[in-house]
């Protein structure tokens, strides 16, 4: 049975996944026998192996399954029905993955938009100086622009091999991206569409942040490197660092803070010398993906592997951690501080839960993300102190209005 032409958008996002690797994945993770199996294998493995389905938390009805995969691929109605029925029968909901939602007295409003190119793995939204919302479609090598007032969206194609991991705007409205697959830092001028690329020694630039000194600092996770780019001169400097540097932030004093996803450390980098001072976190199993700063200069972080959030006092070295509401398997991922309140998500849960933590009262409140699946991998605080989120697997960009 042939698939519709609209599957092309999903196939495009393969970008580096070989047929051999997919075949090996299928051999190791075969699906249960049943009506619709062959169609699932043909449609779903265009972008990922069947092991992704087997590892999922499942859904209790064909309608829920269809809602999810319709954000990834456009199928004919009859094909979509067969796939949804098969998945609901063989992969029902795993109730053990439900989050522990904590009630509270804070109201939020979540608005989500599905981005145009299906299967692109929408992620890492940011707000530009003009108030527009931007995202990166990593698997499709694009960035997109959203007008949150009208819902109008426009996508910009980047070099096909770039696969941008994260983006950050500059003061002029240019969008800078980390070319995670072609070893570049890139700049898109939205007005002209022109793209400027700077080649990096690190093979996988990951996350980036602009410093008050005008330079762009970035991490490269698998290369275990940190980098600094001067946009005015194009001069790049890169240094080796501890295993798997991930999130990156700048504090009010100009120190560049690094989260490490390969060791139990947080790093404080001097922006001039690029020397790093390391803070050891208590448990060797600790891995940190994202971090942020509060008004007192404390560093807040997600302890992704142990289901906790933590606070580091850089002056004393004191570290305090709190258990996330959904427990050790909740896998906190993205984090931001708004008015000294900590916001993060529990990415190991289905639906993905957004959590608010008040450090003064030491109280939690949490909400289920409406689209429910996809994982928030990064968040952004807007000028109005709201929160930008996303769901990567289901191509959603979201705005959390905090009342």
UniProtKB/TrEMBL annotation:
GO molecular function: lyase activity
Record's signal peptide: 1-23
InterPro entries per the UniProt record, alphabetical: Cyt_c-like_dom_sf, Vgb, WD40/YVTN_repeat-like_dom_sf
Pfam families: Vgb_lyase
UniProt keyword list: Lyase, Signal
Protein name, per record: Virginiamycin B lyase
Native species: Marinobacter salarius
Source lineage: Bacteria, Pseudomonadati, Pseudomonadota, Gammaproteobacteria, Pseudomonadales
